[in-house]
């Protein structure tokens, strides 16, 4: 872990100063792309209290510009999460939309384990889960994709995902983690509706178009060219053979088929839709 994160106040200040004099200017355009980390990576320092959110906020406001607004908004999301936790202390354990208590989660143990190990057969999901296990960090875009995959494609209760992130994230934060999971599961305040289901393939094509992030974390696919690195099961046999990628052996086949999983999730949602 030491090779990925240096704890402590001095390191927190250094990280902040580097970000403020560099990537904050491209944060707005680049923050969604996991390969080039253009975000601050301050979250572990904030979560552990190594740096104060107020000092960051006032320091940004001194050099306020359109480029910094998007970053300030993220700090405000954090405040929003804390606000929700104060008003709803059961935020990490109970859905704020109570009808989700009756959601028919399947909670299949093997599916959950494959998700935790980055063996779902969806390269972007697997890259994120492996990055998390190795480094204790995962890019926000990939957190959204992996979390959505768990609760919608695999129908595993968001609280299981919350607990796994609690176990593995260096920046674990009760309020932010609860908000992240409730937002994705559609169970929280102002959250993404349950029926909005991220497509892990198009997300991968859009936010990791060259496949550079996947190549870093899923080395068994590293030689696959870009169109197929997002959907290796569609690569022609001769290519897979040449690259020694045996689907189902060296790299898993998709744990669920996307369009079928999507319909299954919507059917599950329909059982509680419109109820209180
Ligand atoms: C399912 C899920 C779980 C999450 N769990 C956590 C968690 O346990 N701890 C945590 O700090 N963040 C969590 N997040 C929010 C977000 O992913 C991280 O804060 C962000 O990726 C940290 O990277 P950064 O410091 O480079 O962020 P930057 O983009 O540089 O943002 C600066 C700071 O703003 C705050 N922030 C940014 N985005 C969010 C957000 N969406 N919600 C709340 N605060 C935000 C963080 O404190 C972050 O350090 C979660 C998101 C999701 C979707």
From TrEMBL:
Keywords: Chromophore, FAD, Flavoprotein, Lyase
Record's keyword annotation contains Flavoprotein: yes
InterPro entries reported for this sequence: Crypto/Photolyase_FAD-like_sf, Cryptochr/Photolyase_FAD-bd, Cryptochrome/DNA_photolyase_1, DNA_photolyase_1_CS_C
Ranges for domain Cryptochrome/DNA photolyase FAD-binding: 71-270
GO function terms (MF aspect): deoxyribodipyrimidine photo-lyase activity; DNA binding; FAD binding
Site entry (Electron transfer via tryptophanyl radical), positions: 105, 158, 181
Gene3D superfamilies registered for this protein in UniProt: 1.25.40.80, DNA Cyclobutane Dipyrimidine Photolyase, subunit A, domain 3 (1.10.579.10)
Cross-referenced Pfam families: FAD_binding_7
Family: Belongs to the DNA photolyase family.
Protein name (Swiss-Prot/TrEMBL): Deoxyribodipyrimidine photo-lyase
Natural source organism: Psychrobacillus glaciei
């Amino acid at each position: 872990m030491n090779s990925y994160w240096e704890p402590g106040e001095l390191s927190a200040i250094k990280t902040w100063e580097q970000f403020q004099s560099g990537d904050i200017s491209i944060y707005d355009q680049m923050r969604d792309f996991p390969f080039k980390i253009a975000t601050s990576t301050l979250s572990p320092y904030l979560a552990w209290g190594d740096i104060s959110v107020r000092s960051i906020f006032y320091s940004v406001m001194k050099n306020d510009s359109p480029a910094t607004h998007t970053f300030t908004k993220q700090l405000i999301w954090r405040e929003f999460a804390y606000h929700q936790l104060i008003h709803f202390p059961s935020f990490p354990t109970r859905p704020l939309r109570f009808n989700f208590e009756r959601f028919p989660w399947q909670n299949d143990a093997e599916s959950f384990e494959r998700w935790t190990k980055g063996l779902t057969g969806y390269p972007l999901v697997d890259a994120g889960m492996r990055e998390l296990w190795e480094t204790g960090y995962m890019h926000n875009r990939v957190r959204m994709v992996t979390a959505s995959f768990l609760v919608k494609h695999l129908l595993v209760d968001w609280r299981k995902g919350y607990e796994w992130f609690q176990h593995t994230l260096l920046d674990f934060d009760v309020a932010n983690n609860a908000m992240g999971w409730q937002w994705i599961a559609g169970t929280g305040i102002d959250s993404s509706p349950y029926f909005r289901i991220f497509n892990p393939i198009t997300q991968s094509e859009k936010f990791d178009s060259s496949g550079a992030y996947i190549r870093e974390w899923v080395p068994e696919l590293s030689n696959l060219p870009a169109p197929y690195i997002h959907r290796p099961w569609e690569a022609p046999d001769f290519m897979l053979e040449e690259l020694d990628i045996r689907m189902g052996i060296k790299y898993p086949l998709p744990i669920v088929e996307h369009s079928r999983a999507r319909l299954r999730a919507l059917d599950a949602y329909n059982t509680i839709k419109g109820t209180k």
